[in-house]
Write a structure and sequence with these properties.
The chain is mainly α and about 170 residues long. Helix content is about 65%, strand content about 0%.
Amino acid sequence: MNPKDDKTSTPIKRHETIVQFSREHHYGLLLVWKIKQGIQKNIDPERISSYVLYFFENDIREHFRNEEDNLFSKLTDDNALKIQALQEHQQIYSLIETIRNEKNSYPLLVQFSALLEKHIRFEERILFSHIQEVVPENDLLNISAHHHTDSNRVDDLWTDHFWEKDN
C-alpha cells in the first residue's frame, strides 16, 4: 500500500472551531496514558481511581457538555454518528459511577481507559470530519464563541503524580 493512500498518515485538517475540542482530546489521551503508567507501576488502584474521578469532574464532564451542546446539537437526532457519540458518553458516565463505588479495581481502570481512548479516536477520526462536512460554516463559527475550557490547568491542583518515573 502506498503511504499516501493511508488516511491515518495524513493530518486531518480541522476547522478552527473544532481545534479546541481536539486539543482537549489530547488531555483525555494523556489521562489514558497516565492510567496505563499507574497500572504498569502497580500503583494502588485507589490512587489511580481518585485521579480519574478528579479529572472526570474537572475536565471530561464539561468537555462532554460542550460537545453535546455545541457540536452534536448541530446534527439531526437520527444521525447515526451523533447517536454513537451520545451512547459512548453515557457508557463513560456509567463506568465513572462504577469506579466511584469500586475504587480498588484494575479491571475497571483498564476498561475505562480503553473506552475513553476508543471514544476519542472515533470522534477525531470519524465524527469531527463528518461535522465539518455537514454543518454550515456559520454554525461552526458560532460554536467557537461559546466554547472555552483550559484542560491543561486541571493537573495544577493535583499533587499525586503517580504516573511519574520516580513515584
